[in-house]
Structure formats: structure tokens, C-alpha cells
Write a structure and sequence with these properties.
Layout (H helix, E strand, L loop, with lengths): L2 E5 L3 H12 L3 E5 L5 H7 L3 E4 L3 H9 L9 E4 L4 E3 L5 E4 L6 H8 L4 E4 L6 H5 L10 E5 L2 H13 L7 E5 L4 H6 L4 H8 L11
Parallel strand pairs: 1-2, 1-3, 3-4, 4-7, 8-9
Antiparallel strand pairs: 5-6, 7-8
Length: about 200
């Protein structure tokens, strides 16, 4: 059992929290109440960033002391939205939210994952008609191993998990968000994920 704090109680955060609880972990979900995020982070070994990506850097930088020594799983994509409310562009072109978080939080072990799919797939990957791929980006191998174990608890088979390397590789997976609005416009909000076929 791992003590986990989920920052963000929207569809992504709520879905992840429920699945992690079902897997036997001790999970706290932090809402926007003053001090809730700091209290949740302090009591956890692993913190999940499921806050809207465009504001994540400011929110998490304010928690620097509470996040020291923690594993921070970043599942958010930092985008600006188009007129239809779908992602239109990246907030950090030539970089990534994960890189910005790791730079701002040097004593926190940031791992990027689960950001290349619609949120229902994060916790039900086997429901897709073909095997999806989930990626890992991060500097700390032990942190990535811990995240890999949590992914298996969420239903991800080991062969579906691809470690891309250091945190800089997160800019590639974050850029994949630019596929999303086009896929949604052609196929609706049907769950999908990026898959690497070999």
C-alpha cells in the first residue's frame, strides 16, 4: 500500500483516485480549499498532479517544501484552449510542463505519465480494442519503478509501459496533446490512447 495524494478533483483526478483506492492504496484527494493541497502532499509518499496544466506550475511551486523528497506523478498537459474549448497550443513550446516542474522543484522526483490518452483509459486500458502504450519520463530510476508498479495496479501490462528516458522526453508526449482536438472532432469523445505498434 502506498500513501498517495491526488491534487485535482475533476474527472482525471477523481477517476485516478477511485482506481487507486480500489487497488488498495491510501488516497487523499485535495480540492481547492485553502491548505488542502499542502496538507495532502505532506502526508503522502506519492503526489499526483491532476490539476489543469496551464496553472500547475504556479500551484505546485507554492508547495515546494511539502513536495520535498516526494515522487510527483505529472499527468497534466499545459495547453491554451481554442474557441471550442479543446487544446489549441502548448504553454511551453520547446519544453514541457514536466521539465518546468522538475526545474522548479529540484528536490522532488517528477515522473511524467498517462498524458497521451483520454482520461477513462488511464484506469481501464484493457477496454480498448488494441493494446495502448503508456510512457514514462523522469530522471530518477527508482521513482519511475514506483510509478511503473502503480501503473500495473491500474491495469497496465508491463509490455504496454515504455520508459522514454529523462524528463526532457516529456516534451514529446506532451506535444501529442495536439492530436487530441482533431481526433475528437472526427470521432467524438470515444476513449483512445496513443499506441506504439511493433
Amino acid at each position: 500500500m502506498t500513501t498517495i495524494a491526488v491534487l485535482g478533483n475533476g474527472r482525471v483526478g477523481g477517476n485516478l483516485a477511485a482506481a487507486l483506492i480500489r487497488a488498495g492504496h491510501e488516497v487523499t484527494v485535495a480540492d481547492r480549499a485553502p491548505g488542502a493541497a499542502a496538507a495532502a502532499a505532506r502526508g503522502a509518499r506519492v503526489v499526483v498532479n491532476a490539476t489543469p496544466g496551464a496553472g500547475s506550475l504556479d500551484r505546485l511551486t507554492a508547495l515546494r517544501e511539502d513536495l520535498k523528497g516526494k515522487i510527483l506523478i505529472d499527468v497534466s498537459n499545459a495547453t491554451t484552449d481554442g474557441p471550442d474549448g479543446l487544446p489549441a497550443d502548448l504553454v511551453y513550446p520547446g519544453s514541457s510542463l514536466a521539465e518546468q516542474l522538475q526545474q522548479a522543484l529540484p528536490e522532488t522526483r517528477v515522473v511524467k505519465t498517462l498524458n497521451t490518452m483520454l482520461f477513462p483509459v488511464m484506469t481501464s486500458p484493457a477496454t480498448l480494442s488494441q493494446a495502448p502504450t503508456v510512457f514514462l519520463s523522469g530522471e530518477d530510476s527508482q521513482a519511475k519503478q514506483a510509478v511503473r508498479e502503480l501503473l500495473t495496479d491500474l491495469g497496465w501490462h508491463q509490455e504496454w509501459i515504455t520508459d522514454l528516458g529523462g524528463i526532457r522526453t516529456a516534451r514529446a508526449t506532451e506535444a501529442a496533446i495536439l492530436f487530441v482536438p482533431h481526433v475528437i472532432r472526427t470521432a467524438g469523445f470515444t476513449p483512445f490512447a496513443i499506441s506504439i505498434a511493433r
